[in-house]
């Protein structure tokens, strides 16, 4: 029994000593020298005609920026490339039980992967100096499995879709392909989604969907597409751009509520018109010149056009006010407006009199003043002059009332028309944005 214990202890001690002492500098240096002797320009296949299957996986660590006007997305992406090397493998027991080793990329084979829709340089290997290149290593296992990590910030082209601004979403993709002829390298996705475990949040954009797909033709071409959907966080733009424009559109209607005689109607109308022009300039800097046009841009342009019409109506109502003050109503159009407003006023008065027909009015009592007026002896000439003066005053008063009523009718009609247009616009814009397909 003691003999068996001694044998077991001796066996474990020798194995532990082999593991600790076996992986010496000499053993690893010898293995590294052997693996570096292979040409880095040859495919890691015993049969050079066989394609190399390279699996790729991507991590998004951050979205630095997305410029909708230029259509450039700047993500920070890390790629993990894995493949099987049939040349660079070894028996670990012959090299001190070494199961893995790292080799510089300058001394070994790595796949050359490019990004099809990249703005500047095409390669995913973005090194800034020689030290970074020398410290970039490929990890090899004893069975020939190779793994290589590369990361960096990239400028990717991504078309903008501003149709639902500021609730817009944009579909972007990173299109990778191997730069080898005759399909010597076949690029395949390792998983069908992006890995977002290490992604940092962006204040303006968030990734709402992602997928990975590929096209593989072993004899010709292969490609892997990493697709993401960027959605804007609309709170800031809604509070600082959309809401002020909507409130300004309602404030524009207050022009027709200000009396013409105050002299402030024209200044308010033109001030709001200039404010709309400032907002148009701001939106032009934000939105790109692309199709389809944003619904918000259409809404703003229509409101600008309505503001121009309101300015015209304001100037016209002011000119009517002064023409009526001078009794300059010889124009056919002005005469028509007065007749139309008078007819409408008379119809309203008749309706009011009909409503008051059934009211019982008590007989007017004879007061002392009335008795004295009836008993006063007036000369016929004085009485005629007084009646003529009262008729002139009555005609002037009726004319002035008709002019005022005509101006009020015009203001009411303009207010109703532009309010209806604004409500229809807001309804259509809300339906298009919040019930989009």
TrEMBL record:
TM segment ranges: 236-261, 267-287, 299-318, 413-435
Domain Neurotransmitter-gated ion-channel transmembrane, residue spans: 242-398
Membrane topology: Multi-pass membrane protein
Annotated Pfam families: Neur_chan_LBD, Neur_chan_memb
Location of the protein in the cell: Membrane
GO cellular component, one term: membrane
Name of protein: Uncharacterized protein
Any GO molecular function: extracellular ligand-gated monoatomic ion channel activity
Keywords: Membrane, Transmembrane, Transmembrane helix
Lineage start: Eukaryota, Metazoa, Spiralia, Lophotrochozoa, Mollusca
Originating species: Mytilus galloprovincialis (Mediterranean mussel)
